[in-house]
Write a structure and sequence with these properties.
This protein is α/β, with parallel strands linked by helices and 594 residues long. The chain folds into 3 domains: 318 residues, Up-down Bundle (ABC transporter transmembrane region fold), CATH 1.20.1560; 165 residues, Rossmann fold; 56 residues, no CATH class. It is built from 21 helices and 10 strands. It has a 6-stranded mixed β-sheet with strand order 6-7-8-3-9-10, sandwiched between helices. Strands 2-1-4-5 form a 4-stranded antiparallel β-sheet, with helices on one face. Helix 8 packs parallel to helix 11 and helix 15 packs across helix 17.
C-alpha cells in the first residue's frame, strides 16, 4: 500500500473492491489455519491406532468423514476466497494503474512546449512504464502483503501461543531479526532502485532517439559508433540492475537462513516436548505438527513485512517521480477570458516583444502589424529571425503580456485558448504524421469524416494521385512519424489535414519547401480560390511562395524590416531585394524559372 496526494483518492473510488478483497482475504487467512489442526488430529489418530487404542480416530468412520468434509469445505472456501481477493485487489491495482496513466497523459497534453524542451522522451516513457508498474504492484501485492502481515500473522501467532507458548517465544525472538534486516536493507534498496531507474531512463532515451533518427545514422554511416555508445549505456544499465538484484537476493538469502534455522530449532524443541511432555501434560506428535503448521503460516507475514518494506521503498521513489510530473505547473491557462462565438480572422500585433522562458535574449522586438480579415500574407526572412515564434504565440503555446496580440480586436490572452486553436489551421515545419492510415491523418481534426471530403482535401493538396498509387490507398498505414512517405508527400498530407478543417485562420510554416515549384503553384492557386475571404499566413524561405500574396512581411533578427507587396518591397526593402536576387541566380543556375 502507498499513499500520496495523487493516489489517495483511489482508495475511496475503489472502496468496495478493496472491502470485498479484504473480507475474502481475511476468510482465506482464517480458514487456512484450520488445516494444521485437522492434520494434527489425523496424525494423532494414526498414533492412537498404531498403539491399539479402540477410541482412535481410525476406528470411528464418522469422525474421519467429518474431517474430510471439513477439509473439502475449507478447500472450497479458500478457492472462492482466493479468486475473489485476486480479482478485487489485483484487478483494482490494474484499474488504478490505468487511471493514473490516463491522468498523466491528460496532464502531458496540457504542459507547455517549454517543459518538453527540458525533459526527454525516454525519461517520460520510463514514468509511464516502469514507475507505474511499481506503483501498481504496491496497490496489488503490497495491499495483500500488508493485510497478511497484520491479520494472518495475528491469527497464526494466537494459535501458536495457544498450542505451545514456550516454542512460540523461541521461534518469535529470532524472527525479530527479519524486521531488523528488512529495515536496514530497505533503505539501501530504495537508493539502489532510484539509481536503476535513472539508468533505465538513459537507455530508453538513447534507444528512442536512435529509432527516430535511424535515417540520419545510416546516412552518416555511424552505425558502429551508435552501437558502441549503446553498449556503454546498456552495460551501465545492466550493472545497476545487477547491483539492485544482488541486494534483493542477499535479503532473501538472509531471511531464508533465519527461517530455516528457526524450523530446525522448532523440530528439536518439539521432539523434546513429545518425549518429555509439556508443562506436565502430554505433547503429541499431532500437536507438534499443528504448531509447525502455524509457524509455517506465520513465516509468510514476516516475509511479507520484509518484502513490503522493499516494495514500499521502490513505490515511494516511483510515486515521487510521478508526483513531480503531475505537479508540474500548467502554464497555458485561461484567466479573465470572454467567450467568443466566432473568430473571423483579423490579426493585429501591437508592440509585441517576446523572450522564451528559458532564454536570455528577446526573440521578437517591437513587432507591430495589422493583418485584415481575408488577407493572404507571406512572412519571409532568414533562419532564426522569429517567424515560427510568431506562430507559436498565435497558437497560445506560450504565454505573453496582455495587449500585444489581438484577434478581431480582442486580446488573445482574454480569449479561451481552445477557441483560439480551434479557429486556426496549422501546417507545421516538421509535417508530423501519426502512425495511422492516410485517411485518419487527413481527418485528424474530426472524430469521423466521409471519404469524399477526405479525397477532396487530398486532391486540393495535390497528393491524391500519390495516395492512389499505394496498395491500400487511403487505408495505407504511414508508419511512425510518417516514415513510409517522402518529404513532399508528408507535407501535402499535412496541408490536406489543415485544409479539411477549413478554419478562419490558416498558417503554413514553411510547408511547401519539400515540393517542386509546379506542385507549389498548384497548391497556391487552389488556396487562393478556397481561402477567399479568410486569413492565410504563409511562412517561407522561397520568394516564389510569397511573391503573389496580398501582403509580404520581411523579418530580420526578430524585427519587421519591411511590409508590402512583392513590387513594393523590391523598391523599399534592401534585404528582400537581396533575397530575390540570390534566389533568381540559384534558379538560373538550376535551369528553372524563378
Amino acid at each position: 500500500m502507498i499513499f500520496g496526494k495523487n493516489v489517495n483518492r483511489y482508495y475511496g473510488k475503489y472502496f468496495l473492491f478493496f472491502l470485498f478483497g479484504l473480507l475474502a482475504l481475511l476468510a482465506v487467512n482464517w480458514f487456512q489455519l484450520e488445516i494444521p489442526r485437522i492434520c494434527g488430529e489425523i496424525l494423532d489418530g494414526i498414533g492412537d491406532s498404531a498403539q491399539g487404542n479402540p477410541d482412535s480416530l481410525f476406528n470411528n468412520p464418522d469422525g474421519i468423514k467429518k474431517l474430510m468434509i471439513e477439509l473439502a469445505v475449507i478447500a472450497g472456501i479458500m478457492f472462492v476466497g482466493r479468486f475473489t481477493w485476486r480479482y478485487c485487489i489485483f484487478g483494482v491495482a490494474a484499474r488504478i494503474e490505468a487511471d493514473i496513466r490516463k491522468q498523466m497523459f491528460s496532464h502531458s497534453l496540457k504542459l507547455s512546449n517549454a517543459y518538453y524542451k527540458h525533459h526527454k522522451t525516454g525519461a517520460l516513457m520510463a514514468l509511464f512504464t516502469n514507475d507505474l508498474q511499481v506503483i501498481k504492484q504496491s496497490f496489488g501485492s503490497g495491499t495483500v502483503m500488508a493485510i497478511d502481515a497484520v491479520f494472518l500473522g495475528s491469527f497464526a501467532l494466537y494459535r501458536m501461543f495457544s498450542t505451545n507458548w514456550i516454542l512460540s517465544c523461541f521461534s518469535i525472538l529470532p524472527m525479530s531479526l527479519i524486521a531488523l534486516i528488512s529495515v536496514i536493507m530497505g533503505r539501501i534498496m530504495k537508493q539502489k532502485f532510484k539509481v536503476r531507474q535513472e539508468a533505465y531512463e538513459a537507455l530508453s532515451d538513447f534507444t528512442q532517439e536512435n529509432f527516430s533518427g535511424l535515417a540520419v545514422v545510416k546516412a552518416f554511416v555511424k552505425e558502429l559508433h551508435e552501437i558502441r555508445h549503446f553498449d556503454k549505456i546498456n552495460e551501465e544499465n545492466r550493472k545497476k540492475n545487477i547491483d539492485f538484484v544482488k541486494f534483493a537476493t542477499l535479503l532473501n538469502v538472509l531471511l531464508t537462513v533465519v527461517i530455516s534455522s528457526i524450523f530446525a530449532l522448532l523440530f528439536a524443541g518439539g521432539a523434546y516436548f513429545v518425549i518429555n511432555g509439556f508443562m506436565g501434560e502430554e505433547f503429541t506428535v499431532g500437536q507438534m505438527w499443528e504448531f509447525v503448521g502455524y509457524f509455517d503460516a506465520v513465516v509468510w507475514p514476516f516475509m511479507a513485512v520484509a518484502q513490503l518494506i522493499n516494495m514500499r521503498a521502490q513505490a515511494t521513489a516511483s510515486l515521487k517521480r510521478v508526483d513531480e510530473f503531475l505537479n508540474e505547473k500548467i502554464d497555458i491557462v485561461d484567466e479573465n477570458v470572454t467567450e467568443v462565438e466566432q473568430i473571423r480572422g483579423k490579426i493585429e500585433f501591437r508592440n509585441l516583444n517576446f523572450q522564451y522562458p528559458d532564454g536570455s535574449n528577446a526573440v521578437l522586438s517591437d513587432i507591430s502589424l495589422t493583418i485584415p480579415e481575408g488577407t493572404m500574407v507571406g512572412i519571409i526572412g532568414k533562419t532564426g529571425c522569429g517567424k515560427t515564434t510568431i506562430v507559436d504565440l498565435l497558437l497560445r503555446t506560450y504565454n505573453l503580456e496582455e495587449n500585444q496580440i489581438f484577434l478581431d480586436d480582442q486580446d488573445i490572452m482574454h480569449i479561451p485558448y481552445r477557441k483560439v486553436r480551434e479557429s486556426i489551421g496549422y501546417v507545421p515545419q516538421d509535417n508530423f504524421l501519426f502512425s495511422d492510415t492516410v485517411a485518419n491523418n487527413i481527418a485528424f481534426a474530426y472524430e469521423s469524416m466521409d471519404e469524399e471530403t477526405i479525397v477532396w482535401a487530398a486532391k486540393f493538396a495535390d497528393v491524391h494521385s500519390n495516395i492512389e498509387e499505394f496498395k491500400e490507398k487511403y487505408d495505407t498505414i504511414v508508419g511512425e512519424r510518417g516514415v513510409t512517405l517522402s518529404g513532399g508527400q508528408k507535407q501535402r498530407v499535412s496541408i490536406a489535414r489543415a485544409i479539411i478543417k477549413n478554419p478562419p485562420i490558416l498558417i503554413f510554416d514553411d510547408s511547401v519547401s519539400a515540393v517542386d515549384t509546379k506542385t507549389e503553384e498548384t497548391i497556391l492557386s487552389n488556396l487562393r480560390k478556397l481561402r477567399e475571404g479568410k486569413t492565410t499566413l504563409m511562412i517561407a524561405h522561397r520568394i516564389s511562395t510569397v511573391k503573389s500574396l496580398d501582403l509580404i512581411v520581411v523579418m530580420d533578427e526578430g524585427k519587421i524590416v519591411g511590409v508590402g507587396t512583392h513590387d513594393e518591397l523590391l523598391e523599399s526593402c534592401p534585404l528582400y531585394a537581396e533575397m530575390v536576387h540570390l534566389q533568381s541566380l540559384e534558379a538560373a543556375i538550376d535551369g528553372g524559372d524563378f
